[in-house]
Protein: GNAT family N-acetyltransferase
Organism: Micromonospora mangrovi
Amino acid sequence: MALGYVRPARPEDAGEIARIQLATWRVAYRRILPRHVLDNLDEAFLARRWSAAVQEPPSAAHRVLVAVEQAEQSYLVGFVASGPADAEALAPGEPTDALADGVVAVTDLLVEPRWGRRGHGSRLLSAAVDQWRSDGLGRAVAWVFDGDEATRKFLTSTGWEPDGAARALDVDDLLVPQLRLHVAVPAEETGTP
């Protein structure tokens, strides 16, 4: 088991978050998204977006957490971004009130492949759940690519399941199917005195 921890992202993490996103997408999604789309993603553009997400979130419940691997040096190795569900979390044609208050949407949950299978994804998800619980959010949703077996397997192993919603993203005239997973945010465990 790796030595690691999760902490809130800092403004100076934005460039590293963008690098992790790009590296992970280029490995994990190479058979899902067109190669030229992955090759043309702009790391500087992504870094600016992550900087804004960290420094100017739309609400206090919008958060970016990072996973850190501790060795001789510390490395950022993954991240999770989430916030209250909005129109982006809806399926096509779904009414705007389909995801009621109290639902959080995970927009990104990535661990760089070379750091995978070391507990970072579980630590990120656990830390996020703790924050969702403290924000009073009772259900979580996440869109995953239909062809992303690793993410689906990870999330379903922790209790997530499809909620029946599906959509297809238009990525440079290629429709890429996604399905929405959901899970109840577990109540905080209380110990007996």
